[in-house]
Amino acid sequence: MSVEKDLVRATLNFEGMHEKVIRGSLLDFTSQVIIETPADTGRLRNNWQSTLNVPVSVSPVPTESVDPDRTGSDSKQMAEKASASLKIGDIFWFINNLPYAGFIENGTQYFAPFAMLRRNVQKLARRLK
Known about the structure:
mainly alpha, two-stranded antiparallel sheet, 50% helix
């Protein structure tokens, strides 16, 4: 076998390994954000949307259009599906476009921030360094 073919095979294996690491990291990240999102009715938790390369609409959606689910199963399934298709160079979008999502993340004068997204973005950044 030629050295060139060995190098090509090693490169392909290396890319596959990177994709697996990134997929696993994204799944851990999205799962933690979903779990840490407060679930009064479950709508906010179940509205995390994951896509590749094209974001979902960032326009706020009516609250009543999101199925309430305190487990966030729709959000988790969408993240699993998007991350399973991820290739090196893709852009992973993770958005919650309910009108009050920013208030829960950042807090208001009446309650402290939950910071479920910010905290987990910092963890993800440390992990991928």
